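Record 1 of the preview.
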Amino acid sequence: MVKMIGNEPSSELEWDEPLGRVPIFSYGSGHMLNDITSSCWFTYLLVFLTDVGLSPSDAAIVMLSGQLADGFTTIFVGELIDRFGHFKLWHAGGSILVAISFSSVFGSCLPCKLTGTNSSTLETVGYSIFASIFNVGWAVTQVAHMSMVNCMTSNPTSRVALVSCRNAFTMVANLSLYGIALLIFTLMHSVSVLVQYRWIAYTAISIGCCFVVAFLIGTKEPG
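->
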């Protein structure tokens, strides 16, 4: 994206000015949902899928379908965002897909419920669909969030601060996820493991969505 700078000197000065702490902090929080769900995804999903009855090969198919969707989406969504802009709108749409599909993956097999059957093929297809939707939303959110940096300011120090804050929130997300898991495994040891995994996933989504709201409110759409 190319930042369009007005002809007025004040616009150029504003573009070059360093950002304050609030916009940097609110920007950094915008990837929290992606980070905390991906940490849960790569740590617990394979174990969860095998616990619900999928074979290791079928569970691998679910993971692979998501990664393929992520790869293709990342290519095309970057071009679309460059062409149409509206970073926050793309970010919000991707975050909605992430929240809905992630809760569906760690929920029960929706196609199985609708058809009243529990075949392994249908389970694999059902989980693969939501895994693909999750990774599409994840890629949209990631690309929209990362591409905002160069359009928010031309100040090199502020750009470094934005990326550093984003990376710091990634660490916070990872630590938070494992803290949540420790708490749930400790307090809910009497329930089944599947229920524990679902509570971890739902808690992660709730926390991540709060940070998405903070990002959308506190971050100005690049003009």
